[in-house]
């Protein structure tokens, strides 16, 4: 949850706008030019004329039943500008045309299910001497450089590792951790307990995952994606050597996932999977025809630690939303009159952020990357006239 503040004029019948900035004792900074990238200091707000001003101060008081807020607005007594104050029923008195309004801005927190091939060939080594299994473990679980740890607060990670190893549960043999926020410890525990063995029934496994989806997905109202990491041609539960039907079943399973609004991104761990099959899986994973080539969907072939880490970071980063929904509305044509900050740093409209529509803003470029990494508060402030009350 990210807080976004829609700040408007304070139109009291007792206090004239900007009165505290007239005459002796005016707060320091009154009249200074201001903008979204050059905000006013404490006790001041940026007026419609582009200058810092205040309606009240330590010497200019508000009318009865009202107090001076931290940015120089008169507000109802008991409202100090904290998150949620302006959402109180008494926060908008009848004699005010607009007010300081604090709303929530939310972005999606996707479910990312890591579908991991645990077949025996994952024991094979890359050229650097580390096994495919260990390299994948490092790319996922290293701290702080693995994929899961830095993003677990903004992505609901889970996993399903699969093989065909003749377990009592039958084929496919699935070991799962349901998606959840802050899920690193649960995933690490299960991964480090397991070792590769058996075949690669990819299609059977994805179909089995779809059959258990209700118990595996923590937030079904949020986007869900599968990240398929496999190192070999798929086979089937019926025949561990049947790659023809293995390919067909894998493709059909990915198409079945997409029919349930689940995209699939595929990584070949090593170069033993045919590029033609990877391309078909990648295309089907985003809803394209399997043999579509205009444009062809991306897939990844990782033959070392760095390549695997990059592939995972690219895929997971692409599904972390940089769009934020405002629980309020603005005039998109005047959005750049507002101020958006990330971690306290002002962002530039048009370069770092933009308005998508009346209740959505989108972070761009490096600002989006920062938001995706998590851990920083975002605020958005819009002046009176930009807000649609």
TrEMBL record:
This is VWFA domain-containing protein. PROSITE patterns: VWFA (PS50234). Transmembrane segments: none annotated. Residues 111-315 form the VWFA domain.
């Amino acid at each position: 949850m990210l807080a976004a503040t829609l700040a408007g004029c304070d139109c009291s019948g007792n206090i004239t706008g900007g009165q505290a900035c007239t005459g002796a004792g005016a707060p320091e900074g009154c009249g200074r030019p201001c903008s979204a990238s050059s905000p006013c200091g404490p006790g001041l707000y940026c007026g419609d004329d582009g200058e810092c001003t205040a309606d009240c101060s330590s010497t200019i008081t508000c009318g009865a039943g009202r107090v001076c807020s931290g940015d120089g607005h008169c507000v109802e007594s008991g409202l100090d500008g904290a998150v949620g104050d302006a959402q109180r029923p008494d926060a908008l008195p009848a004699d005010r045309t607009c007010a300081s309004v604090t709303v929530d801005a939310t972005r999606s927190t996707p479910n990312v299910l890591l579908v991991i091939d645990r077949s025996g060939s994952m024991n094979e080594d890359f050229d650097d001497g580390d096994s495919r299994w260990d390299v994948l473990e490092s790319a996922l679980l290293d701290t702080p450089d693995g994929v899961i740890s830095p993003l677990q607060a903004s992505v609901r990670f889970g996993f399903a590792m699969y093989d065909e190893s003749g377990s009592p549960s039958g084929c496919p043999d699935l070991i799962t951790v349901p998606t959840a926020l802050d899920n690193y410890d649960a995933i690490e525990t299960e991964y480090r307990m397991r070792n590769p063995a058996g075949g690669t029934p990819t299609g059977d496994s994805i179909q089995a995952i779809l059959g258990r989806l209700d118990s595996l997905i923590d937030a079904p109202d949020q986007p869900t994606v599968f990240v398929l990491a496999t190192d070999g041609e798929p086979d089937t539960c019926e025949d561990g050597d049947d790659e023809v039907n293995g390919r067909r079943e894998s493709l059909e399973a990915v198409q079945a996932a997409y029919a349930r609004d689940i995209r699939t991104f595929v990584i070949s761990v090593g170069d033993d999977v045919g590029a033609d099959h990877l391309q078909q899986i990648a295309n089907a994973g985003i809803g394209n025809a399997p043999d579509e080539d205009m444009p062809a969907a991306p897939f990844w072939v990782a033959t070392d630690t760095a390549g695997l880490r990059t592939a995972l970071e690219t895929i997971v980063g692409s599904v972390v939303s940089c769009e934020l929904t405002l629980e309020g509305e603005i005039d998109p044509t005047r959005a750049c009159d507002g101020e958006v900050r990330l971690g306290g740093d002002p962002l530039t409209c048009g370069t770092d952020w933009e308005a998508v529509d009346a209740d959505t803003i989108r972070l761009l470029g490096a600002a989006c990357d920062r938001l995706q990494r998590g851990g920083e508060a975002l605020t958005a402030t819009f002046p009176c006239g930009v807000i649609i009350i």
